Amino acid sequence: MIEGHKEIDAPAGVPVWDVDPYDSAILAGPTDYYAELRSKGPFAYIPRYSVLACGRYDETKEVFSDWERFVSSRGVGLQDFSLEEPWRPPSIVLEKDPPDHTRARAVIERALSTRAVRQLGESFRQDAESLIDGLLEKGVFEAVEDLAETYPTTVFPNAVGLQEGDRRRLVDYGSMVFNALGPDNEIRRDAMARGPDVVPWIMEQCQRERLKPEGFGAMIYAAAETGEITEEEAGLLVRSLLSAGVDTTVTVLGSAIWCLANNPDQFERLKADPKMALWAFEEILRYTSPVHSFCRTANLDTEVSGIKIAEGTKILCVLGSANLDEDHYPKADRFDIDRRPSDHLALGVGIHGCVGQNVARAEADAVLTAIANKVGSIELAGEPVWRPNNSVHTLDRLPVIFRGK
Ligand code: HEM
Fold this sequence. Notes:
Distance between the termini: 59 Å
Strand content: 5-15%
Bound molecules: protoporphyrin IX containing FE
Helix content: 40-55%
Shape: globular
Structural class: alpha+beta
Number of domains: 1
Number of strands: 12
Oligomer: single chain
């Protein structure tokens, strides 16, 4: 065993690569690592963790979406749940395969339906506008704390129906969930140390009696009333929303400001046509891949692109690299909101594709549209600092200046 999964040999034809994908410097600035990974071929064997890594678009998509051969129920991080017990009861949607996954997914999809999310649009827009007005008044501000963390931790707990939205604990729980998918390194240990304070609080917020009668949470509990799921499962689905819905949107909003500040021509394009906000969002997702890597486990002996893969193999699917694959996206290293990359892998693909994407789009649309309508220019006011995280490529600090129109 190694990092909670079966140790494997390098399959024939796969280069051995002595790299640590969880090294802090790589996590903070992964572009060169992504390029080298793609140059190795369809897969590289990384002995340090005994995993196969894939970072070309085609293979990453194949492995990530083929749930019959590459399962999620054995964990989407390095640990194999069939061999080792995870730190928390597994998610009944992200960490399950059909038919269990199908049942839970139907409930959560209904709660987060296009209609339910559309109803939140107006309040999302109002919150975004007053946030941007406040930041324009400040002029110079810290975009991670004052914008990227503030917005989702204001609108999302409300949409779920939480009584209280404790920003620090919500962000820290996301950090635990995503860092836990990596190896037992310092980054993971630091995040997990917050558990005693954060986990009981999160679990309490997921209880039926704590949730407001309107909101995604109550809609999920409605399915427990009809017997579609149990009350305990409803609590775990609300937990899924809090696990997956905060850090990801915080990350993408920080990255959005980073992209626009670094590409003033693209910001001009967005200002000229604020209806491009949603396409800008897709390009921000492709270009920055908030979720940089997730794993799958081969559930049988199989083959991909002529490479034999043994049962039990952990495959590190490097979404961040696949989204920058030149063979799929010409001039992939250019941020271009006219690219309209509707097939990027940043929100996953196939049966596990992000079930919260309507919510993420609604939040991003509200914020980007408010910025396009109100902000004249965005400038960096200092060096951006990236925060190493075992699964999420996220900013730690981003000092910027907003000037009005
Ligand atoms: C831009 C923000 C977001 C990004 C980049 C993102 C990314 C992803 C990715 C890559 C997956 C696929 C995981 C896999 O296949 O193993 C996923 C699944 C999921 N996402 Fe998101 N997500 C975002 C926002 C959200 C939000 C706002 C919510 C909740 C409202 C959410 C809830 C979920 C859930 C519950 C799953 C599991 C779905 C399943 O397994 O069927 N996500 N997300």
